[in-house]
Amino acid sequence: MIPNSETQEKRQHSTTWIPYSYYECRIPEWFMSVPMHWHSEFELIHILRGRGDFICGSRKYEAGEGEVLLIPPNMLHAAYTCGEQELIYDALVFSPAMVGAGSGDRSAHECIRPILKGYMRMNVCIRKETAGYEELHALVGRIFSCVQDNSARMDLLLKSELMRLIWLLEESGDIVFEKEDGGSEAEAIRPALEYMANRFREDITVEQLAELVHLSKSHFMRCFKKAVGIGAIEHLSQLRINAACEALSDSNDQIADIAFSCGYSNLSNFNRQFLKKAGCSPKEYRKRNVAAD
What we know:
Helices cover 45% and strands 20% of the residues. It is an alpha+beta fold.
């Protein structure tokens, strides 16, 4: 099922000129988590250190160093650390055009577009025990080398390597052509996730969210926990703390002002929640990030 454009992540990851973006991700050093979201591009993740929980559509994967995830367009996904562990990974978010989605040939029609339409399923996680892992892992290394070179010439090689990645996954059976369940929990709560992402600074109740998606409160809570891995209030708190981390790193605003701007009406509660999720006080977090800069 392809989602409504109203629920799409607003960040622009690709342009016609450069159809991809590269991100270095460090959780919880740079941010507490990657909350549930989606975008119209593929996302390739290579875990460099630590372990994390990745929720992709209706499935949850625990993955660690050396393992790879390829997330198809339009799939809801999120990333969290496993317990106290850090999670460091490289991420490449690339337009389907990089693998020929816009062409009119049979490979695009039969091999790429079924993935984009969202009614086919692919095995998202490439583990060390996956058949052909060594070849796939070396290929992913070359892909990120192309990205880090950041030149027009290397974009040519990047396209060919991404197409080879898709080919290898299809050849090995890791892209499985079976109907996706359009009535999954993730699809049911998608409007609530968008509402929270856009309005997390406001007072939001579980009752409001359940009404928004036309579910009873209890059924909504079950769907949300199954799809996201945490409860709705916990997810809301993560959105607020992530925004606070960004503000603490990028501004000189008073901590109280940041707390209020991120949806906390009580400074003591903000400090308590921040310490619980970041492992340090807001003041200490700001100090660490200023020192790192």
